[in-house]
Design a protein that fits this description.
By secondary structure, the chain is of the alpha+beta class. The chain is 13% helix and 21% strand. The protein has 4 helices and 11 strands. β5 (135-140) and β6 form a beta hairpin.
Length: 324
């Protein structure tokens, strides 16, 4: 089955990693599990992604969502239709030295210990209320099936999110999604991936989460024939409101004021732009942030508080003696 692809936004704190999907549903205290949280960035999980545990990520990978019906991302989903989806981890760079060991790794009684190139993903499709919608199933032998394969690549959690099963070195995962009923409205696909670095390579700590790379994103999917999903970027481009504002101002202004009015209107019209999901990878890069070093931000703010008596605007550095 030929897959069409869609690049989605890429965005690119210590516990044990979850090499098997079942750990997401296990108790966080008793079994070192996820407590039912998929960490895919969905609002029902307070926006938490894999970076809750996987710290010091270099943010060099990205995530892509593919579908066998490209119209899913253009005109929207057809209610009750089944779609073959694929989550793809792009630009893998961590743990490549351990790929050759495949799944023959991570055995504590093997000497020398062979670390695993453990990668993973989490995905869910939510309706406008934030609840998981539609139904997921397996993809096996080039077809969708509700029968669990002998060696499954994915697992659907109790809450409805889909996560990876243990297979070292994997960078793509297939699943099937049956769209919800008519009238459900727009749906958002929340997805996150982890590029594991192989751990420390010791039996004492085989699945550490330090230095793994992560990426997370969301893509709105409309219901075919219904209104388009709201613009998540904070800018409304429907009907060219900036242009409408410009024409209104020019129509009301007198001859002497039209030049100034035009300049002001143009400034207002150009202050908001919609960024397509496939264009957001560049915006998520570290060098695109105004202040890429949070520690330096805290230091600067602390100096302002102690020397100028000013605070606020972008967080607080806490207390201190103010003697710097």
């Amino acid at each position: 089955m030929q897959l069409k692809l869609l690049a989605i936004l890429c965005i690119a704190s210590t516990a044990h990693a979850f090499p098997t999907g079942a750990q997401f549903d296990q108790d966080a205290l008793a079994n070192d599990g996820g407590g039912g949280i998929a960490f895919d960035g969905a609002p029902r999980f307070a926006g938490h992604t894999c970076e809750v545990c996987h710290t010091n990520a270099p943010h060099e990978i990205s995530v892509r969502l593919e579908a066998d019906h490209p119209e899913l991302f253009d005109t929207g989903y057809t209610p009750q239709q089944q779609y073959h989806l694929r989550v793809v981890l792009e630009h893998e760079h961590e743990g490549l030295q351990d790929t050759a060991t495949a799944d023959v790794c991570g055995q504590l009684d093997d000497m020398p210990f062979k670390p695993c190139n453990d990668n993973g993903f989490a995905l869910e499709l939510d309706d406008q209320s934030g609840a998981v919608t539609g139904a997921t199933s397996f993809f096996d032998a080039n077809q969708c099936t509700t029968t669990e394969p002998a060696d499954p690549m994915t697992l659907t959690l109790k809450g409805g999110a889909v996560v990876h099963e243990e297979h070292a070195g994997r960078t793509a995962w297939d699943l099937c999604w049956t769209a919800p009923a008519t009238g459900t409205g727009s749906v958002t696909a929340w997805v996150a991936v982890v590029d594991g670095n192989g751990g420390t390579g010791t039996s004492a700590f085989p699945n550490d989460t330090i230095g793994d790379d992560v990426a997370a994103g969301a893509v709105p999917i409309a219901e075919a024939g219904a209104a388009a999903p709201p613009n998540a970027g904070g800018c409304s481009t429907a009907g060219e409101p900036g242009l409408a504002l410009l024409l209104l101002v020019l129509g009301l202004a007198g001859k002497r004021k039209r030049l100034l009015a035009a300049l002001l209107a143009l400034a207002a019209a150009s202050g908001c732009a919609h960024v397509r999901p496939r264009q957001r990878e560049a915006l998520a890069r570290r060098n695109m942030t105004f202040a890429p070093d949070p520690a330096e931000d805290e230091l600067d703010l602390h100096m302002q508080e102690s020397r100028e008596g000013s605070s606020g605007g972008y967080g607080s550095s806490g207390g201190g003696c103010g003697c710097n």
